[in-house]
């Protein structure tokens, strides 16, 4: 039961994290919007870069991209949170717990894809965020990708030896 409790709490923690980030991005819209805007404009990478044709100067696209990120965070947070509630309700049965993992896993996968696709691939590589000394979020994105990946791997691990006697 201890490993199931850990899986539940880890999933709930990431659910809370995603929801807090999304809510903060809505309440304090301008702070992180500025980050997204500069990454998409590619205005802080070295001049003369041969990939600056990828930059977008459209404020509408900047806001759209930011809202996609916020909605992605809200969805991942909601799925992780609802998944954690389902895991909590199913703690006493290994079979029920495995069934309840579906929603939690969907939230964790969505979070993992947010960091890998939106921040590392699109922001980091397509818009060359890694070249910026000011608007570079790759280290933070990699850190969150790693935490999210560990949570997902941990969720999929079989229950520990303390859970062998639990009901199936």
Strand-helix topology:
Layout: H1 2-27, H2 29-41, H3 59-89, H4 94-126, H5 138-156
Overall mean pLDDT stands at 93
- Low-pLDDT sequence parts: none
Count of distinct strands: 0
Structural class: mainly alpha
Number of helices: 5
Question: What string, H for helix and E for strand, traces the elements in order?
Answer: HHHHH
Using the CA coordinates, give the radius of gyration. 19 Å
The biggest beta sheet reads: none
Total individual domains:
1
Helix % is over 70%
Separation, N- and C-terminal Cα atoms: 12 Å
Question: Could you describe the 3D structure shown?
Answer:
The protein is mostly helical and 168 residues long. The protein has one domain. It is built from 5 helices and no strands. It has helices at 2-27, 29-41, 59-89, 94-126, 138-156. Helix 1 packs antiparallel against helix 5 (138-156) and helix 4 (94-126) packs antiparallel against helix 5 (138-156). The mean pLDDT is 93.
């Amino acid at each position: 039961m201890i490993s199931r409790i850990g899986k539940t709490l880890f999933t709930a923690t990431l659910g809370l994290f995603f929801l807090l980030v999304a809510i903060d991005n809505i309440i304090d819209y301008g702070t992180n919007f500025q980050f997204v805007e500069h990454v998409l404009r590619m205005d802080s990478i070295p001049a003369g870069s041969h990939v600056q044709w990828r930059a977008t100067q459209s404020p509408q696209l900047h806001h759209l991209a930011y809202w996609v990120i916020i909605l992605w965070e809200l969805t991942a947070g909601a799925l992780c949170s609802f998944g954690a509630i389902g895991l909590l309700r199913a703690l006493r049965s290994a079979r029920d717990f495995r069934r309840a993992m579906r929603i939690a896993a969907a939230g964790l996968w969505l979070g993992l894809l947010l960091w890998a696709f939106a921040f590392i691939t699109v922001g980091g590589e397509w818009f060359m965020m890694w070249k910026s000394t000011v608007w570079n979020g790759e280290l933070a994105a990699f850190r969150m990708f790693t935490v999210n990946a560990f949570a997902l791997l941990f969720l999929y691990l079989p229950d520990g030896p303390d859970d062998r006697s639990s009901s199936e």
